[in-house]
Amino acid sequence: MYGDTSIQKPIEIAEPTSEEQARLEEIFQQKIDDNIKIEPQEWMPDAYRKTLVRQMSQHAHSEVIGMQPEGNWLSRAPSLRRKVILLAKIQDEGGHGLYIYSAAETLGTTRAKMIEQLQTGKAKYSSIFNYPALSWADMGTIGWLVDGAAITNQVALSRGSYGPYSRAMIRICKEESFHQRQGYELLLTLSRGSDEQKEMLQESVNRFWWPSLMMFGPNDADSPHSAQSMKWKIKKKSNDQLRQEFIDATVPQAEFLGITLPDPDLKWNEERGHYDYGQIDWEEFGNVINGNGPCNKQRVAAHLKAHEEGAWVREAAGAYAEKQQKKQVA
Amino acid sequence: MTELSKQDALVHYAAQIGDNGLIIGHRMAEWCFRAPSIEMEMALMNCALDMIGQSRELYSYAAEAEGAGKTEDDFAYRRDEKDFRNNLLTEVPNGDWGDTIVRLFFMSAYNKLFYAALAGSSDSQLAAIGAKSLKEVTYHLRFSSEWLIRLGDGTEESHERAQKSVDSLWTYTGELFTMTDAENRLLKDGISVDVAALKADWNEIIEQVLKQATLTVPADGWAQTGGKAEGIHTEYFGYIIADMQYMQRRYPGCEW
Amino acid sequence: MTEQAKEQEWPLWEVFIRSKAGLDHKHCGSVHASDSEMAMEAARDVYTRRSEGISIWVVPSNAITASKPEDKESLFEPADDKIYRHPTFYDIPKGAGKM
Q: What predicted TM-score, i.e. pTM, was given to this entire model?
């Protein structure tokens, strides 16, 4: 998911070094167990802080990098209504990135530092945005599947233990429900359109289905250190749980659209009360996460270019503010 | 040449104002994921949404005035380059942040005066669009003025860049104050805005902000014109249309 | 990366929004901006996209003094047993009318 960090090296959890430390940890865990939110200045284990910073920065980066594939179609939106919807949606993503950066900054990191880590490849973002947006139908598919997958997770995150993150997620969830709906509505229009439009729809879903499932991260068996995140209520549900919820909700929507999902093993399992699904290509996932996706280099390069080209502008505003301050003092 | 009918003039007029909104809005939206900070990105996208929103209302009104069953999208997507009557200033490329801010500033200063006047139009729909748009462009003017002041009075580099932007875009500002046949035709009924009469107030805004930005106002020289009166555009414009209309041209007659 | 390291990040501002007349300003997040005017505009562009506000305050984050979490017990718990400050502490017979 946007903030699923189970693909990365686990953050080490140090044993308490003193009795006092052990006592603090116990109080901390009690608060978490009692569903009392943790707020910025309060004592927290170092690993909790680090895990959160990593997860939140990855989440924020995902929102910001996620603007690129959709931004790629802004100029070509086929109606003025669609153009403003897409523009407003992409703008929301920028906003969501900003809300989460803000929340992460309460933990003592800076946005500049997080952005530097993104640009140097130290920080990750969701693998999904390393896939290209190649057709107009992708604007619908991204809303329906990608935002749909994100919402599944974000609703859980809004009940997470860290106050500022949880509050940001509540705001984001409120804004985000329009994202999925506009995407689905776009696809519905295609599904009722010409043969070419229907083909465009099916082709897009074929490309995005599996990468959307990969967004939830590795199978539970392969993400051992997410247990600690669950205990801290940074993560509320496991990868496989969320993936299953998403699939169960999505299959009927696909049927309603009159499309096939590209998985021959996908079928209802009466006994489990869930859909069974086929094997995810984890080799592809690993490659896309580690820089070999179709758009990894292009995405980071575009971010870096904007950042560098904006340096003189940011400096100018800073210099002006300094001059004004000096004038006031004088 | 026979005089335009009032109805034809009204269709032309509403569409022409709409063209300005759509084309500059389209340009602003090109800043998506390219701005110097997320906050600035959000601001430009707000501007773009306002501008495209204005064009939608104006196109819808043009369609209604024409009475031929067209929609806003017929105006945006099913006309050729020559049919667009936007000011050239709206279509030139974004350039750097300085160019974009200067264009936005020139255009918003004009729009503020223009929409304030349009709000007094004898045509009630245009007056309503004018009143609503005025609030939006007032913020665009504030945003672009504040930025221009910071660029002009920021660092040595930003000062130089901002002055260069002012100088290079100045040639497109003269066209803002030229009158088309449609504007002249509607003027006597109190429907259109006498844009030629806005020039003095516009100059005042420009001079005041540029002064605060420690920038020099260029001397009025030869003005580039053609977009507004005849649909003769810059070379850049064809690419906007090719890009924007790609889907409608590739898949004619589809619903999206 | 040297260029970036050299560049100083714009200061952080906390944003407070009054959602409608009669209500308090409420904290809703933060923005980075070079000065107060820019912070005001950024707050408007980021936090009021869905008509969430009619008034904005922006405050430099470093101008806020916050109470320390470890002082919580001594600052706030002493109020807990002063139940006589609350109107429900007092029994007034029904016959006395609304009070």
A: 0.95
